[in-house]
């Protein structure tokens, strides 16, 4: 079970995920959180870049060292983390985000958060897992390449006519890891989504709608049906059910990012 969360903060690091890896290799146990004011080499999925401008965003990563976890269950941790971020943003600001499977939280069709889970094996089993979360909080604008798909807590609160009393970023960081502890401890008892699937699906973007599955070699349309207990996406393609696994696949809306 996850308890004993320990928070450390640095002004600037290359990547909070990489700092956690270093500590894990030095023997640190689970519950360590490293957050940073900015990252100079923030990473997204599949070798992509993650922007975390100073003072505007949250970059935070947690170390997990689950005993006897199966390799199969690791991608599910990203899905659990997405639930936690959604829950924290809702509890603190009343913003009702949706989860864009597997790793993004979206508001009004744009991405407010990204999650990157990494792990290292040793002697044939999982040695440690890093869950890294980036949230756009105070950003008022974004670089041209991501402006069409990025938003922030402040921008969404302004749209909702609520002003931008988002408080300090460390409040949100703490709320995210508190929520994560709650969901992760449910997940880890079964190492699957059986206790969380229903809530996840209630908050899943595009549920019952047409989506575009973009794999490396091809791209096709499908209807999003929900998730299975492994946290994999279930879709229907020409009347047949298919399972989409986390990996090098993107799920998009038919007309845009969501
Ligand atoms: P998908 O999962 O459908 O491929 P995605 O295009 O958002 O979605 P991800 O790998 O989840 O891809 O996220 C990485 C991408 O996020 C980067 O390639 C960049 O386009 C975008 N990005 C980088 N920084 C930010 C940010 N601060 N806010 C929103 N989006 C960002
Ligand atoms: C994505 O959407 O592709 C995932 C983005 C994950 C960004 C976070 S910020 C904290 C942690 N450190 C990193 O280098 N990446 C993750």
Describe the secondary-structure layout:
Layout: E1 6-13, H1 16-25, E2 32-39, E3 57-64, H2 74-93, E4 98-100, E5 104-107, E6 110-122, E7 125-136, H3 153-159, H4 169-190, H5 197-202, E8 210-214, E9 219-227, E10 233-237, E11 240-244, E12 250-253
Parallel strand pairs: 1-2
Antiparallel strand pairs: 2-3, 3-7, 4-5, 5-6, 6-7, 8-9, 8-12, 9-10, 10-11
Helix pairs in contact: 2-4
Q: Tell me the count of domains.
A: 2
User: Which regions are unreliable across 5 or more consecutive residues at pLDDT < 50?
Assistant: none
Q: Percent helix among the residues?
A: 25-40%
The shape, in one word, is globular
Overall mean pLDDT stands at: 94
Per CATH, the class of the largest domain reads Alpha Beta
Please state the second-level CATH architecture of the largest domain: 2-Layer Sandwich
Bound molecules: adenosine-5'-triphosphate, biotin
Strand content: 25-35%
Distance between the termini: 34 Å
User: What string, H for helix and E for strand, traces the elements in order?
Assistant: EHEEHEEEEHHHEEEEE
Could you give me the name of the CATH homologous superfamily of the largest domain?
Bira Bifunctional Protein, Domain 2
Q: How many β strands by DSSP? A: 12
Going by helix content, strand content and strand pairing, the class is: alpha+beta
CATH topology of the largest domain: BirA Bifunctional Protein, domain 2
Instruction: Give the count of helical stretches.
Output: 5
In the sheet with the most strands, the strands line up as 1-2-3-7-6-5-4
Largest sheet, in brief, is: 7 strands, mixed
Rg from alpha-carbon coordinates: 17 Å
């Amino acid at each position: 079970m996850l308890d004993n969360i320990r928070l450390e903060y640095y002004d600037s690091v290359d990547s909070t995920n990489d700092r956690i890896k270093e500590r894990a290799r030095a023997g640190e146990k689970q519950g360590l959180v490293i957050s940073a004011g900015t990252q100079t080499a923030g990473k997204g999925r599949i070798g992509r870049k993650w922007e975390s401008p100073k003072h505007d965003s949250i970059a935070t990563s947690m170390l997990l060292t689950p005993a006897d976890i199966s390799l199969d269950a690791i991608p599910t941790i990203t899905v659990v983390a997405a639930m936690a971020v959604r829950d924290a943003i809702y509890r603190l600001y009343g913003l009702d985000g949706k989860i864009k499977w597997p790793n993004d939280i979206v508001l009004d069709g744009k991405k407010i958060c990204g999650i990157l889970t990494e792990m290292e094996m040793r002697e044939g089993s999982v040695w440690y897992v890093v869950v890294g979360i980036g949230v756009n909080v105070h950003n008022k604008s974004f670089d041209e390449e991501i402006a069409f798909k990025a938003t922030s807590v402040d921008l969404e609160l302004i749209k909702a006519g609520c002003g931008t009393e988002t408080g300090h970023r460390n409040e949100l960081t703490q709320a995210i890891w508190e929520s994560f502890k709650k969901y992760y401890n449910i997940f880890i008892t079964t190492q699957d989504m059986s206790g969380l699937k229903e809530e996840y699906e209630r908050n899943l973007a595009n549920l019952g709608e047409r989506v575009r599955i973009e794999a490396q070699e091809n791209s096709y349309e499908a209807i999003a049906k929900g998730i299975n207990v492994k946290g994999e996406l279930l879709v229907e393609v020409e009347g047949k059910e298919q399972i989409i696994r986390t990996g090098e696949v993107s799920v998009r809306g038919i007309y845009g990012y969501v």
